[in-house]
Known about the structure:
The chain is α/β, with parallel strands linked by helices. 38% of the residues lie in helices and 21% in strands. Helix 1 packs parallel to helix 7 (217-226), helix 4 (106-125) packs parallel to helix 5 (163-176) and helix 9 (276-288) packs across helix 10. Bound molecules: nicotinamide-adenine-dinucleotide.
Amino acid sequence: MSAFDPDRIALNLANNFSDGVRVAGSGPGMPVLRPSDGRIHGELDCASADQVDAIVGNARSAFRRSGWAQADPRARMKVMRRWADLIEADAPLLAPLEAVGSTRTIGEILAWDLSYTAECLRFFAEFADKEGGAVLPTTPDKIGMTISEPYGVVAAIAPWNLPLVMAAWKIAPAIAAGNSVVLKPSEMTPFSVVRLAELAIEAGLPKGVFNIVQGDGATVGDPLCRHPAISKVSFTGSTRTGIAIMTACAQTGPKPVTLELGGKSPQIIFADAKDIAQSASIVARAIALNAGQVCVAGSRLLVQDRVMDEVIERITKSFEAHRIGPTWADDTTMGPIISEKQLAQIDGIVGRAISGGATVLTGGRRAPAPQEGSYYLPTVLTGLAQDSEAVQDEIFGPVLTVQSFSDEEEAYALANDSRYGLAAGVHTGDLNRALRATRALEAGTVWVNRYGRSNDFMLPTGGFKQSGIGKDLGREAYVANLKSKTALIQL
Ligand code: NAD
């Protein structure tokens, strides 16, 4: 049994983190709601502008003086592995804390989020003694080399959809590479990451290496990015915010940015897929996960016309079988939408699609139960024009648009007709077609006969077009947290 009573989760009142301790924010307070029932979860103590400045300053001193950047790389690895162990051991406290304040169900967090967060730290820890530069060819009277060095203080800005996992993607490679980090979590899911910071100190991370500032984007995120002591910004969130952050980094740097942004990812089922039932089930899961609030949600289904009816029937049935409920219930298979505002956005796009002539095969409205909280029925829409809002815009909810195609060329044309390019899925039994699709699709990741990430951390993730710049995970993400110095030594 993993279910828990949400009213028993106690929150600490000081939620910024600097120099190894929790610090009360001196900015305005902000109520944080529980997505599952809309009740007040806690009051967030936001950082003031002066506090952002002071916390970045402390992080800068820690970068220079804590010894972390200069430590034996294997000593860094050891601390990060201990940190990962502590996260897993903290599941009785950390899992309910994450579930009560987010859209992730307690079952998902215990089965995946916590161990994935810990493994992410272990994975990047391994790079600490494996990437350092190179000796490069030159004439015998010289030695030419590159030396990899940490940037200094990295700002990490995270979204609300998977609070711990998204934070880990940012902080693990930056800290393993020797940087200090100032994390700004989403103001909607601010609490669980503070526990991560406490566990880092317990694991032996020097004070000031991992810090947290709390607040919204305009009053805390923007000044953080613009701070002169921030040397790099690593961001995950919407395309609109990514553009604002890149602008801020250009105006106050220029500083390097990694941007993991939105998506509108297609899933393509060809009639020659080996097992149509299995493909339909993969497609249904890929949009239902976290109620569609996943950057790589497979939100556009493209089906070859011959198998359209069978696929639609299976997906519709699977959607109608979901048990929609709070994140703290054992039997919930689809949790809430993060907020009423987000639900209104989803419902607005669906409503306009219906007014424009789309057909709702299932869902299409707010879930009738539970009464409290923001829940949306998993929805299938057909009869949409390619240039319609529902096909082109990221909905970030459990809404699947369905279009048919007759041949391969048309499938790729529809799939690529998007300003996003985060991920794509292809179902086919023909190896040549699978390889052609992998080449043809304009997406940072292409999954064939599956959809979604595995625990293969070496595989980088990131988007093309308006889905972003740079990569999370993989060697790329580690290297992106280092700058390369060139040395030429005359012998
Ligand atoms: P968001 O862009 O509204 O906010 C993300 C973070 O940026 C929050 O912490 C927010 O406070 C902060 N922020 C907002 N304005 C800012 C500013 N001007 N300067 C600095 N920080 C600012 O995104 P969201 O609603 O929290 O998350 C959902 C979005 O994230 C979706 O578009 C989703 O696709 C995307 N996402 C992408 C990935 C990926 O890997 N590509 C992963 C998860 C989520």
